[in-house]
Amino acid sequence: MHEKNTLEYLNRQIELAKKGGGDDKIEAQHKKGKLTARERIELLLDRDSFQELGMLVSHRSRDFGLDKQTFLGDGVVTGYGTVNGRLVYVFSQDFTVLGGSLSEAHAEKIVKIMDLAIKNGAPMIGLNDSGGARIQEGVVSLGGYADIFYRNTLASGVIPQISAILGPCAGGAVYSPAITDFNIMVEHSSYMFVTGPNVVKTVTHEEVSSEDLGGASAHSIKSGVAHFSAPNEVDAIEKIKKLLSYLPQNCEENAPDLPYEAGNDIREELNNVVPENPNTPYDIKDVICKIVDSKSFLEVNKDFAENIVVGFARLAGKSIGIVANQPAFLAGVLDIHSSKKAARFVRFCDAFNIPLLVFVDVPGFLPGTDQEWNAIITNGAKLLYAFSEATVPRISLITRKAYGGAYDVMNSKHIGADLNFAWPSAEIAVMGAKGATEIIFKKEIQEAANPEEMLAMKEEEYKDRFANPYAAAARGYIDEIIEPQFTRQRLIRGFKMLENKVGNLPKKKHGNIPL
Ligand code: HXC
Questions:
Q1: Domain boundaries, the chain
Q2: Among 90, 189, 87, 104, CA closest to 141
Q3: Residue whose CA is at the smallest distance from ligand 1 atom 4
Q4: Which pLDDT value is given to residue 262?
């Protein structure tokens, strides 16, 4: 028998492939506090569930010394397995092989499992750790990236796509994570940028470190590119697993239910959450956590645009998406960042059949030249469009303020919400009482013997008429004014009632969301 036909030869090849770039490189990876591609997969997937594909693929290029070395697997480990018993596809870039750089063959391996993930309807998880396009291969590696971007786009809205950034991710390489649904970054060992510190210095004369320019905190707090950040890789991978638990496998399915034992759904403490003074802040996350199943709230984009809160939770065991104005941050005002953050989240939930629960306490849109010149018009419209287009079950609860255009935008009845509730503390009007009375009673106030007294009187009159939920309830824009303590019960009933909702949009190729 020829040597290559023996089991020994096969086993030697497998051992070689498993070593990636070799022991020295593995040690160097560990010294940086990073795990290897295979260790990461082991942490992610259920024990013994990983089935590798393309282990023996190697590069084809013969330029710039590549003819003298061969690495089985070519810098990326690809395959499928299960997370908590559910199928996922995964690629994990191997920095020990030529810095995890992306060659033609490396890209083909990723493309192969992306195609399988799309055809078989299961989430795609990318563990990124790469020096970018393999410089020796030139345009074929650029082509390889584009092949991946194209599939990221085709897969968008079909299967959930999650990217973990566990090392460098620079240049055009960032555009694959950018198209995927969620990015998770590890603090101090990962970065993402279109151009690195050296180019930045040459072009703009700014001196900035990689970490400051594109580290986990920059993208969690400043840009919002990172939906989650983690102190280490183990935690990052745990976050991926947790996130998956709220998601369906694909757009044709619903997220799995968790077993749930019905109990007492009355939450008396909610009756005292909203402060007496309408200008006193309170934390909407306290409200969310008192309503949803215990410890089930997973916040997304926690440190970015904190004036809006988005995330997944469970209500009576069922997965829901939550969007909530945050009165404890900038009074919960809607601005460019918060509108974009919430709009993308709403579209994700709608694409994957996750019902939406919306908490409203919003004084309006943020005024100012900065907002106007950076297109709050277009960006605010994103959220309006995203809600209007969403066909999943949608329930709103106005806890306090719902003023101006923001009332319409925040999942109002008029843009397709299925159930609209308000607490007695709700104020639903075109604008706040003071501003409104100063405009409509300008003449009376100016001509009054005591203008201040007149203003106060008219303000009271206005508040009595509009700064409450009754005018909206009288018109049916609010379906029920509920005592806060019964909120959980009403929401569980509401979502149950909406379980079989069929929502259809007019036939079209696709809409034109104001991007
Ligand atoms: C080929 C690469 C490589 C690359 C790293 N290596 N990046 N080989 N192509 N892009 C190799 C190194 O030569 C080295 O090989 C090994 O990987 C480890 O790299 P080091 O530099 O020793 O590691 P480290 O100090 O940790 O630095 C990592 C790094 C740096 C910051 C990623 O290697 C780097 O700056 N690389 C180039 C990044 C880059 O400019 N890429 C192109 C971006 S543009 P040996 O044999 O010595 O171990 C791009 C366009 C995509 O990607 C376009 C899509 C449209």
A1: 3-244, 268-432+467-497
A2: 104
A3: 134
A4: 85
The residue whose CA has the least distance to atom 3 of ligand 1 is 131
- Using a CB cutoff of 8 Å and minimum separation of 24, what contacts does 59-68 make? 59/103, 59/104, 59/105, 59/106, 59/134, 59/137, 60/103, 60/104, 60/105, 61/103, 61/104, 61/134, 61/136, 61/137, 61/140, 63/136, 63/137, 63/138, 64/135, 64/136, 65/136, 66/136, 66/137
Closest ligand 1 atom, CA of 133? 52
pLDDT for 347 beyond 90: yes
What's the confidence (pLDDT) of residue 502?
96
The pLDDT tens digits for 197-232 are 999 999 999 999 999 999 999 999 999 999 999 999
Share of the chain above pLDDT 90, in %: 91
- C-alpha–C-alpha distance, residues 228 and 243, integer Å: 10
Record the tokens describing residue 298, joined without a space. Answer: 């997973």
* Atom 28 of ligand 1, residue of closest alpha carbon: 131
Q: Which of 66, 98, 110, 202 to mutate to test the pocket of ligand 1 (most atoms within 8 A of CB)?
A: 98
Intrachain domains 3-244 and 268-432+467-497 with the same fold: yes
pLDDT > 90? residue 4: yes
Q: Which CATH architecture has domain 268-432+467-497?
A: Alpha-Beta Complex (3.90)
| C-alpha distances in Å from residue 130, one per residue of 109, 164, 165, 216, 311 | 15, 12, 9, 16, 29
Which numbered atom of ligand 1 lies nearest the CA of 168? 32
Q: Is 405 a catalytic residue?
A: yes
Superfamily grouping for domain 3-244: 2-enoyl-CoA Hydratase; Chain A, domain 1 (3.90.226.10)
Q: How many CB atoms within 10 Å of residue 32? A: 10
Length of the chain: 515
406 is catalytic: yes
- What pLDDT, in 10s, does the model give residues 460-494? 988 888 889 999 999 999 999 999 999 999 999 99
Alpha-carbon distance of 127 to 193, in angstroms, equals 17
Average pLDDT estimate for 249-254: 98
